[in-house]
Amino acid sequence: MAEITEVSKQKSVSLSDRQKDIIQKFAALGSLFVLISVFSFTSSAFFTIDNGMTVALQVTSIALLGIGATCVIITGGIDLSVGSVLALSGVVAALAVKDYGTPVWLGMIIGILTGSLCGWINGFVVTRLRLPPFIATLGMMLIARGVALQITGARAVSGLGESFGELGNGSFLRVVNIGDDGFPTVVFPGIPYPVILMVVIAVAVSFMLNRSVLGRHIYAVGSNPDAARLSGVNVSRIVSFTYVLSGTLAGLTGCVLMSRLVTAQPNEGVMYELDAIASAVIGGTSLIGGVGTISGTAIGAFVIGILRNGLNMNGVSAFTQQIIIGLVILVTVWIDQLRNRR
Amino acid sequence: MESRPVEPRESVLGVATTSTSGLPDSNAGFLLRLDNISKEFPGVRALSNVHFDLRRGEVHAVCGENGAGKSTLMKIISGVYQPSGGTIVYKGEERRFSSTRESEAAGIAIIHQELNLVPHLSVAENIYLAREPRRGFLVDRKKLRADAKRCLDRLGVDISPDAPVRGLSVAQCQMVEIAKALSLDAEVLIMDEPTSSLTEQETRLLFKVIRDLKASGVGIVYISHRLDEMAEIVDRVTVLRDGRYIATDDFGATSIDAIVSKMVGRSLEEKFPDRTSVPSDEIILSAEGLSRAGVFRDVSFTLRRGEILGFAGLMGAGRTEVARAIFGADPLDAGTVTLHGQALSITSPRDAISAGIAYLSEDRKAQGLAIKMPVDVNMTLANMEAVSNGFGLIDFGKHARIAKEYIDLLNIRTPSIKQPVRLLSGGNQQKIIIGKWLFRKSKVLFFDEPTRGIDVGAKLAIYRIMDELATEGIGVVLISSELPEILGMTDRVAVFHQGRITGVLETKKTDQEEIMRYASGYGRRNEERHG
Questions:
Q1: Beta-carbon contacts of residue B150 (< 8 Å; ≥ 6 apart)
Q2: Tally of CA atoms within 13 A in the half-sphere of B469 that contains its CB
Q3: Could you report the predicted ipTM of this complex, rounded to two decimals?
Q4: Mean pLDDT for the stretch of residues B266-288
Q5: B359 inside 8 A of chain A by CB
Q6: pLDDT (mean) for B435-463
Q7: What is the distance between the alpha carbons of residues B226 and B237, in angstroms, rounded to a whole number?
Q8: Which among A89, B29, B450, B457 has the fewest CB atoms less than 10 Å away?
Q9: Residue B226, SS3 per DSSP
Q10: pLDDT value at position B523?
Q11: Cβ burial A52-66 (10 Å sphere, 16+ → b, else e)
Q12: CA distance to partner chain A, nearest, from residue B178 (Å)
């Protein structure tokens, strides 16, 4: 990564903004490839289809939250509540299924809508009560976590039945051969449903940001809220929308995570908001607002996911992992600053 | 240019003439002298072989269109940039400043167009920011206050050292900046567009301060687009064009026309275009009894088809506020607005925009443009419905076509429709905003200080556009602090004083003095004298 940094630094002096953007993208993508090749070299189990799917699965939660975070951050806001909101959504879905006997799909929809509601409240507090986004979502972070613990009595909700685990554990195109001895051998592990969900949502939100009027307004609000308002953009509605989107995706992430464990944990997702923000920032989203892409955030999510997975496989302790990821965040943002300076 | 007796040794400002190696101003009295200065940026030659010199106690203006290299030259003097070639001699010694810190220590202070004050600190704290007098670990507040007061008193301005800066007017902030420069014992003071946001009255005060500074031996580099007001204070003028040195003249020995033609490289016949639009009796917009508590009250006016209506008055008289309230950007307590005979009820800019009213803010960068976004995005921002389908998806082909159409129509100079607008000149930025509202098919446009910080050539283009709009039946309101602009462009002028319209005058039958009388609230008395 250091080499790439050097190159981009030297060249950026004489390059146009557009070229610099491309180099930045390649720098992030390049560092991803460097990570993959290093880990492939140090651990033979790393570069396999199985592990690839594992990483993809691990990345889904960061990426889904990161997509929401990106939209919020583009408008110049921040959402600290997603970790708690995903826990609340997950336990609400689980309780709906267990205590009220709703079908799994309906329970999950209720869970996701719980996330949307939390996002809507965030948006309301930010746009109508005019509290700073940091404070508004900090409050929601505590409230949602508290409600999740309260309604579950701080206990995990288990015994949800196999169908509850389908969303998180099932996969598409799984090929299994039943051998002569009767034991199944997995030919292709299939693409996990959460990964498909992540790809579809990433493409959809990216399309929304780049191609739709709504996306254009999101960028405009982040770039200059006053100019956007004076151009007739309904700034409050746009800002609220991004919080609802972030909350909804948090709700979805909660359902996916709880489904994977087939248990709803009110303590799930602590500090996930920071991974989400980090993935957006590593991907080039500016906390000042107005700048950011879903492709960048996806790359950022994979950088974090692959770092964790690869370091795990190489037996690096969880504490050291934190240090390394912290440094990666600092270095990538520093590169971004270099690009934007001058 | 015989200026007043200069006291170079012992000045009221306590300017120490640090005799530099026994060469006290031996360089023919030059305080600062730049020779053959060049500056290259990758791919751009910003300055080539530029000369500039400054004497003690003189005001030396630097003129040139946007992009002529004025700012680059100032940044070289103040150490922000290093020159690629050439020499800088300051007080008889060849110097290169590697930072503003170094140039400040040597006595060169710069007052930027965008003032650099910390809003929530007091005036005194701003003046001595990062240089606070200390007693041990603590700030010596008493001394801080006393020193700041002394600096302000020297300027003869009535600003409390304890006042928080966020409550000050732009003019007062500027005085604080000057006081800060004095506290640095500055011998060279660079002023970048100091009057661009001042009213006539405030400009007077600034000029008085400048004259005092001159008398005490400070050399002042003065950058401004307002050539008309230079006659009062400027001794010499240097013209730059496209990064090249054109000429240095004694101001008294040249004329504004000569300076302008040197700036643009061709002779400019006139500052204002001939008006082609003819006012009719048809009323486009009328406002009746508009009031907003504490800001303006009982404001009524009409705008006729084909006319340009001026809003004149001192800063803070309520001109901008009335326009913003009609546009729905600020609330309106009372009054009615009628557009083409239909009474409007406007509670947000969106209402006003869909009714066909547009407001072009005086602060282009803060309120008019999404500055980091490209030309095409800004051009279509107010009318996305027209470039998208029923599903809210943007039709990029149409989007690009529209952007190109308005770039051609308004003759906007940009390398591409994807250029971020922050990289364009002020004139082109203003044209993009105009394009945005034309594409929205606006029926009435409020231009708030549309030519502020825009160079001479581009100003004329903006005026032409305004005239054409009026000809096409679009209502044009021009809010301006520059009286020549009001007199040169409008058909009638509504003069504001303390939140009220004190008179609506026929532009052809009035003059600067009469407008100023109404603007200062003495208009009525004048009427009585005449009647």
A1: none
A2: 32
A3: 0.80
A4: 82
A5: yes
A6: 88
A7: 13
A8: B29
A9: coil
A10: 60
A11: bbebbbbbbbbbbbb
A12: 28
Q: What is the pLDDT of residues A79-115, one digit of tens each?
A: 999 999 999 999 999 999 999 999 999 999 999 999 9
Put simply, whether A314 touches B (Cβ < 8 Å) is no
Tokens of A335: 């590169």
pLDDT (average), residues A322-339: 82
- Mean local confidence (pLDDT), B90-104: 89
Which phi and psi (to 5°) does residue B19 adopt?
A: -65, 120
Contact check, Cβ <8 Å, B369/A227 = yes
Mean pLDDT across B386-410: 92
- Average pLDDT (A300-314) is 91
- Tell me the count of A-B CB pairs closer than 8 A: 78
Quick one: pLDDT at residue A5?
Answer: 38
What Cα–Cα distance (Å) separates residue A57 from each residue in A169, A246, A301, A342? 9, 20, 11, 40
Structure tokens at B94: 């060849």
Exposure b/e, A325-341, CB count within 10 A at least 16 = b: beebbeebbebbeebbe
Average pLDDT over all residues of chain B: 85
Sign of CA dihedral A257, A259, A263, A265: positive
Confidence (pLDDT) at B422? 84
Q: Would you state the pLDDT for residue B192?
A: 86
Q: Which two tokens stand for residue B424?
A: 């364009």
| Pairwise CB contact (< 8 Å): A232 & B359 | no
Containing B526, the helix (H) or strand (E) segment is: helix B523-530
Residue B435 has pLDDT above 90, yes or no: yes
Q: pLDDT exceeding 70 applies to what percent of chain B?
A: 91
B388 touches chain A (CB under 8 A): yes
Long-range contacts from B463-467, C-beta under 8 angstroms, 24+ separation = B463/B272, B463/B273, B463/B488, B463/B489, B464/B273, B465/B410, B465/B431, B465/B434, B466/B308, B467/B273, B467/B275, B467/B276, B467/B277, B467/B308
Chain A residues within an 8 Å CB radius of B433: none
What is the dihedral angle through the alpha carbons of B449, B452, B454, B458, rounded to the nearest 10 degrees?
Answer: 20
Query: Of A14, A16, A39, A35, which Cα lies nearest the Cα of A332?
Result: A35
| AA identity, residue B33 | R
Distance from CA of B466 to the nearest CA of A (A): 20
Average pLDDT of A144-150?
Answer: 97
pLDDT band at B326 (very low <50, low <70, confident <90, very high): very high
Does the structure show a pLDDT above 50 at A42? yes
Residue pointed to by tokens 């976004």: B373
Higher per-residue pLDDT: B485 or A12: B485
Residue A71 to residue B332: CA distance in whole angstroms = 34
Inter-chain residue contact B43 with A14, CB threshold 8 Å = yes
Backbone CA torsion sign across A317, A318, A319, A325? positive
Nearest-10 Cα torsion for B94, B100, B102, B108: 60
Helix (H) or strand (E) holding B181: helix B170-183
Say whether residue A18 is in contact with chain B using an 8 A CB cutoff.
Answer: yes
Q: Report whether B250 contacts B235 (CB < 8 A).
A: yes
Please calculate the CA angle A72-A75-A77 and round it to the nearest 5 degrees: 55
